[in-house]
Amino acid sequence: MAEQAYHRLFSYGTLQLPEVQLGRFGRRLEGSPDALPGYRLTYIEITDPEVIAASGTDRHPLVVASSDGSDAVDGSVFAITDAELAAADDYEVDDYARTEVVLQSGTKAWAYLAAAPARADADAVGGS
């Protein structure tokens, strides 16, 4: 493969699913486990039919900032190309905003966080 610019992407949700990766990127991504400290997991209902078809569900995880410093969200970090990052942006609905974060390992990565924290807090389903 020719040298390409790449980005690190932290996923805690449906972008970890092989069927979503194949549909979005045309390949399965190889990731390594990591965590996002200072955040907790909640869920939202997705209404975009294309995203529901790709993931197989209308209930998607979403991370929001936590006031509990011991909270962290587990996930995977992937190396992806510029084109794959654009495809990930296209996949994520308006409830998510791509934000640069520092993971537990110290790695800087992009992650899709809650675009509207107040709404995500209202929809919280406990931190699992």
Topology:
Elements: E1 6-11, H1 18-25, E2 31-37, E3 39-45, H2 49-55, E4 59-65, E5 72-81, H3 82-91, E6 96-102, E7 108-114, H4 117-122
Parallel strand pairs: 1-7
Antiparallel strand pairs: 1-5, 2-5, 3-4, 6-7
Q: Give the terminus-to-terminus CA distance.
A: 39 Å
Largest sheet: number of strands, sense, barrel closure: 5 strands, mixed
Strand content: 35-45%
The SS-based structural class is alpha+beta
Q: Which geometry do the CA atoms define?
A: globular
* Corresponding CATH superfamily: Gamma-glutamyl cyclotransferase-like
How many structural domains in the coordinates?
1
Fill in the CATH topology: Hypothetical upf0131 protein ytfp
Q: Specify the oligomeric state.
A: single chain
Q: Mean pLDDT across all residues, rounded?
A: 83
Unreliable spans: 118-128
Order of helices and strands: EHEEHEEHEEH
CATH architecture: Roll
